[in-house]
Design goal:
The chain has helices spanning 23-34, 47-57, 93-102, 122-131, 159-168, 196-207, 224-229, 259-268; strands at 5-8, 38-42, 64-68, 73-76, 81-85, 106-110, 115-117, 135-137, 152-155, 177-183, 186-191, 214-218, 232-235, 249-250. With 272 residues, it is of the alpha/beta class. The strands form 2 sheets. Strands 5-4-3-2-1-12-13-14 form an 8-stranded mixed sheet, with helices on both faces. A 6-stranded mixed sheet has the order 8-7-6-9-11-10, with helices on both faces. Helix 1 (23-34) runs parallel beside helix 8 (259-268).
Length: 272
């Protein structure tokens, strides 16, 4: 049959609500890897944050990969090698920062090692503590940004303010940039054509694995393209409303009860 490949989101999917992986999920992953299958962490997190989680979860073995920045960068976690990257041209970053700050919204981007923001905000502190990477406060010239970043993130606890920014500011960039919500408080901005689904197709092609051997697991809006791209789109039963219609399987167990292990045993191990 050949190897199969699992693309799994982290938060709300592989990880429980305490950001931990269950022993059951861990064991199922090890069984899949031992049989020669591939495991891909597919996340909106920046690469520095994803690498911390990957090390902690033991997903730096041969056969493990990561799709980060919602598809902007694909990484071989075993060989510690960037396989693919498509960043945002820097010329778009400063005007979008200015537009967000004018609307009193938190906005940040990333260097290779840090979160980069122009304002020291509570949203920044919460995000940094969640992603486990440090932040820098830059001046409004963004002179510390020395390379094109992979995504921008706008944060606010009021979804209506983010929807207003999306509808009033971002249409001017619609030919170059794509935006979507990963949660109701996080508005992601990436290049057009970048999403987790594109990452699924690229990595299957790179590894010479037929798309018919692919399985995706997710729970949120930024997982939709991945769920639709994979042959099996497994939606967590704890997923946000409306996500289930984009997959073709809904788990019996949620992220707190090893739903990913259920997916692996049903669609990866039993197919060997």
């Amino acid at each position: 049959m050949g190897p199969r490949i699992l693309f799994t989101d982290l938060d709300g999917t592989l990880l429980d609500d305490n950001k931990e992986i269950s022993q059951t999920n861990h064991q199922a992953i090890q069984e899949a890897l031992a049989q020669g299958h591939k495991i891909v962490v597919s996340t909106g997190r920046p690469l520095p944050s994803a690498k911390i989680q990957i090390e902690r979860l033991g997903l730096n073995q041969e056969g493990c990969y990561a799709i980060t920045y919602n598809g902007g960068l694909i990484y071989d976690t075993y060989h510690q090698k960037v396989l693919y990257g498509r960043p945002i041209p820097r010329k778009f970053v400063k005007p979008l920062f200015q537009a967000a700050l004018q609307k009193q919204l938190h906005i940040h981007t990333y260097t290779d090692t840090h979160i980069l923001s122009c304002r020291d905000t509570e949203e920044l502190h919460v995000y940094a503590s969640t992603t486990l990477i440090p932040y820098e406060i830059a001046d409004e010239s963004l002179s510390r940004l020395t390379s094109d970043p992979y995504k921008l993130l706008v944060i606010d606890t009021c979804p209506d303010k983010l929807l207003d920014f999306q509808s009033s500011v971002l249409p001017s960039y619609q030919e170059e940039l794509h935006s979507f919500f990963s949660t109701k408080e996080l508005l992601e901005i990436v290049p057009v054509g970048v999403d987790k689904g594109a990452g699924v197709r690229w990595l299957c092609n790179y590894l010479h694995i037929p798309i018919e051997h692919s399985v995706a697991a997710g729970d949120a809006q930024n997982d939709i393209s991945m769920l639709e791209a994979a042959h099996v789109g497994a939606v967590m039963c704890n997923a946000y409303p409306g996500i289930a219609e984009h997959g073709n399987y809904v788990t019996e167990h949620d992220n707190n009860h090893s739903g990913v292990a259920e997916i692996i045993r049903k669609f990866i191990l039993q197919q060997s």
